[in-house]
Design a protein that fits this description.
Elements lengths: L12 H20 L2 H16 L2 H5 L2 E3 L11 H9 L3 E7 L6 E6 L9 E2 L5 E2 L18 E4 L3 E3 L4 E2 L5 H10 L7 E5 L5 E2 L13 E3 L4
Parallel strand pairs: 1-2, 1-6, 6-9, 7-10, 9-11
Antiparallel strand pairs: 2-3, 4-5, 7-8
Length: about 210
């Protein structure tokens, strides 16, 4: 799950306009997707993830809690705990590009989380008991949300830069940059995604037809 935002102020006007136009187009496509089709593609991707070699070999995994227009991650989260792996979820800081990945103790732990004004479940600001991934052993794998992706690994987020900024922090951690996998509906795959030098490519995009 990723909160909404606007295009960065430092983008060139044409690039910013192209990103905004593509976001509008993709939001329309996602609104047109029925609940049953979203569920079908989410289940298919959950099976792809569970059988993926990078997932199987990873111990410390960060994953988003889905919004209605994103691949549903509930089954993946359940499997993370079933396999005895460690699970981390985002806590976004409003009015900034800062995000932490905080440890989830169980799939049931999600019900204890706070609902933000963005309609996103996340640990509360005063929850200091949870381990932050980069304060410990880092991360092996991050599952990334987004609005759109192209087959080169370019990602169109919601405009705040949370994941790009967090991946920059990962680069300075002793464990290095984690492998990144984006989870997408096939309707989110674009011919080309406009990017800036600050946009970090994902290592792999999983969707129905890949």
């Amino acid at each position: 799950m990723e909160p909404p935002g606007e295009g960065g102020s430092e983008m060139a006007a044409a690039l910013g306009a192209a990103k905004r136009a593509l976001r509008t187009e993709l939001r329309q496509k996602l609104r047109a997707l029925g609940a049953a089709e979203k569920q079908r593609q989410s289940r298919l991707l959950s099976r792809k993830v569970i059988g993926h070699s990078k997932y199987q070999e990873s111990k410390r995994i960060a994953i988003f809690l889905s919004m209605p227009d994103e691949i549903q991650t509930e089954e993946i989260i359940k499997d993370i705990f079933k396999q005895g792996k460690e699970c981390f979820i985002p806590r976004y800081k409003p009015h900034s590009n800062h995000m932490d990945m905080l440890k989830l103790s169980s799939a049931e732990d999600i019900s204890s989380l706070t609902l933000t004004s963005w309609n996103i479940l996340q640990p509360s600001d005063d929850d200091s008991a949870r381990e932050e991934a980069l304060a410990g052993g880092g991360l092996d794998l991050i599952f990334m949300p987004g609005l759109g992706f192209d087959k080169k690994g370019n990602r169109l987020g919601r405009g705040k830069g949370y994941y790009d900024t967090y991946l920059g922090r990962c680069m300075t951690h002793p464990s290095g940059k984690p492998y990144t996998i984006a989870l997408a509906f096939r309707e989110q795959i674009c011919e080309s995604v406009p990017v800036t030098e600050n946009d970090v490519q994902v290592d792999e995009i999983l969707y129905e037809d890949c």
